[in-house]
Specification:
Bound molecules: nicotinamide-adenine-dinucleotide, 2'deoxy-thymidine-5'-diphospho-alpha-D-glucose
Radius of gyration: 19 Å
Strand content: 15-25%
Mean pLDDT: 95
Number of helices: 11
Number of domains: 2
Order of helices and strands: EHEEHEHHEHEEHEEHEEHEHHH
CATH superfamily of the largest domain: NAD(P)-binding Rossmann-like Domain
Length: about 350
């Protein structure tokens, strides 16, 4: 099997590539991988075993039709992770999100159609559904994105469906909840909080901290993506959840404890615009059709992540300035903390 992995130098894509080359997924022994990655601020060759004999790395843009059309022949499948991925950046400037996440996805789908690649997995996100006050989204729930990031992912998601309907490209779409684990860029809340606490700083909690996210270890996400690639049905969407639902206050409590810090190290900062209140996925389809459930317990996985950032300062230190948190405002008051 030869797989083209876009965005394979980023957080989730590189985890998938490392685990695929390690033969960690059923039937993946001897798999060959080509990574196509633009190496934006979020991508790094330090995330990949670049000298691995079954890995080829191509620096390039998924929006480049000639490059992707030339690259695809000889590959059995595409797993498309490449994206602009940070909500806050999309609120500051949506343009790169429209380009990479929409035009890039369409470019890749079109190249797959032309070169007749047999299989395509689009790694989408639960954020395309918007925000849900109670209950959980199934794959039939409407797409109601609230940020330029999630709107661009939803558009890419719909292009994928259209290329399956109109051109028979064998696309499956995955929509996963929030990931955590090693190699996550320091702008995202978990690595931002861990590295800030390690450095003795105060962490910025948006708004009242009651927003809820569903957390899944990155290895569980990647295993599910591979199961969809090898056993999922074309034209179908698979939610990848089954993670741990926590408010940001609860998550902060875990991180403070693991880092040996107190609530005096938390600062309230102005809320994110259009901040989604709660995400929650129903993953029955993934479990019943493909037998996939999470393997990494949240507390164990989070403790391992804290340990990894503690032991790999070389990896994140240089990115800390670029991902500097917003200006800190008022300290968290005791009555804001409902744990
Ligand atoms: P990331 O930002 O860490 O990595 C993105 C990678 O894509 C980087 O290596 C970057 O260089 C590359 N890239 C960006 N633009 C490109 C372009 N035009 N051409 C080629 N490469 C380009 O992102 P991540 O957190 O690893 O997310 C990977 C995918 O998973 C994204 O599609 C994201 O929407 C989706 N997703 C992420 C999460 C999460 O919690 N992080 C959850 C669900 C879905
Ligand atoms: O749900 C899947 C999505 O999860 C992915 O599609 C995105 O690519 C990924 O970035 C992530 O989006 P979020 O916006 O949920 O992740 P982020 O880490 O930016 O924020 C998580 C929560 O923490 C959110 O409620 C905002 C809050 N937060 C975030 C930052 C960066 C803070 O309170 N303070 C912060 O400094």
């Amino acid at each position: 099997m030869r797989v083209l992995v876009t965005g394979g130098a980023g957080f989730i894509g590189s985890t998938y590539v490392r685990e695929l080359l390690d033969g960690r997924y059923p039937g993946s022994d001897g798999a060959r991988v080509t990574v196509l990655d633009k190496l934006t601020y979020a991508g790094s060759l330090a995330n990949l075993p670049v000298r691995h004999p079954r890995l080829d790395f191509v620096e390039g843009d998924v929006c480049d039709p000639r490059l992707v059309t030339d690259l695809l022949p000889g590959h059995d499948a595409v797993v498309h992770f490449a994206a602009e991925s940070h909500v806050d950046r999309s609120l500051a400037n949506g343009a790169p999100f429209a380009v990479t996440n929409v035009v890039g996805t369409q470019t890749l789908l079109d190249a797959c159609r032309r070169t007749k690649v047999e299989r395509f997995v689009l790694v989408s996100t639960d954020e395309v559904y918007g925000s849900i006050p109670r209950g959980s989204w199934t794959e039939e729930s409407p797409l109601l994105p609230n940020s330029p990031y999630s709107a661009s992912k939803a558009a890419g998601d719909l292009f994928a469906r259209a290329y399956w309907r109109a051109h028979d490209v064998a696309v499956s779409i995955t929509r996963c909840c929030n990931n955590y684990g090693p190699y996550q860029f320091v702008e995202k809340v978990i690595p931002l909080f861990i590295t800030t606490l390690i450095d003795g700083g105060d962490v910025p909690l948006y708004g009242d901290g009651h927003h809820v996210r569903e957390w899944l270890h990155v290895s569980d996400h990647c295993r599910a993506v591979h199961a969809v690639l090898t056993g999922g049905r074309a034209g179908e969407v698979y939610n990848i959840g089954g993670g741990t639902e926590l408010s940001n206050l609860e998550l902060t409590g875990y991180l403070l404890e693991l880092c040996g810090a107190g609530w005096d190290r938390v600062r309230r900062v102005p809320d994110r615009d259009a901040h989604d209140e709660r995400y929650s996925l129903d993953s029955t389809k993934l479990r019943e059709e493909l037998g996939v459930t999470p393997q990494v317990g949240f507390e164990r996985g989070l403790a391992a992540a804290v340990e990894w950032y503690g032991g790999n300062r070389w990896w994140w230190e240089k990115d800390k300035v670029a991902a500097a948190p917003p200006v800190l405002t008022e300290p968290l008051r005791a009555r804001d903390v409902h744990r």
